Amino acid sequence: MANIIDLSYLEKVCEGDTEFMKEMIEAFIDTIPENLTEMQSAHDAADWPLLARIVHKMKPSIAFMGIEELKANVLELEALAKEGKKPAEIKVLVNKVDGTTTQAIAELSELLKTF
């Protein structure tokens, strides 16, 4: 399976500081699972404004880790949640964000072993 992360943006931001890069990756691994749980809970409760806020909060982390395939999904999910419409589409996007982000965490965890 191909990697879904691309750390070139993070590498540029960190300007060669591998310790800072490692801290950023660790922060992603530590915070995103809680965001995913909150996202699923907000979805299950049909709390669309909360779902939109949670997804909005996740956008920078997803960008830093270069998860390109999720960028459009996250923007669409945030927009749909703000509107509170199309719950079936919201569910598909929540599951996609959850699954892809979980895969990214696994990849990043493996990568951390090389630091």
Automatic annotation (TrEMBL):
The modification Phosphohistidine is found at H56. Pfam families: Hpt. InterPro entries: HPT_dom_sf, Sig_transdc_His_kin_Hpt_dom. Residues 17-115 form the HPt domain. Keywords: Phosphoprotein. This is Hpt domain-containing protein. It comes from Imperialibacter roseus.
